[in-house]
Amino acid sequence: MPIYEYECTECGRIEEIVQKISDKPLTQCRHCSGGLRKLISHSAFHLKGGGWYADNYGNKPGTGSKVTKPAASAPETSSEKKSDS
């Protein structure tokens, strides 16, 4: 069931209410008996983890999508620093 948000026009409280789509919208605040208006909320849909949309979509079979890190260079020694100048 979807979660709807209502804001009271009197006290300003915002309530989240779980309702069926077929249920009538609420009209009265349960805290102060003021009028309620339904709010339009952002969707909570979120893709997490790996999957075809992030890893392999559009890749040809056998090519893979592995990301390789470049090899770390060895730290310079004091003798190498002096010879560069």
Would you mind describing this structure in some detail?
This protein has 85 residues and is α+β, with helices and mostly antiparallel strands. The protein has a domain at 3-43. 13% of the residues lie in helices and 18% in strands. It contains two helices and three strands; from the N terminus they run βββαα. A three-stranded antiparallel beta sheet has the order 2-1-3, with no helix packed on it. The protein is elongated, with a radius of gyration of 29 Å. The termini are far apart. The mean pLDDT is 74.
Brief digest:
Helices cover 13% and strands 18% of the residues. With 85 residues, the protein is α+β, with helices and mostly antiparallel strands.
Descriptive tags:
85 residues, alpha+beta, three-stranded antiparallel beta sheet, 2 helices
Strand content: 15-25%
Helix content: 10-25%
Give the spatial strand order of the biggest sheet. Answer: 2-1-3
Shape assignment? elongated
Report how far the terminal alpha carbons are from each other.
71 Å
Secondary-structure element order, N to C: EEEHH
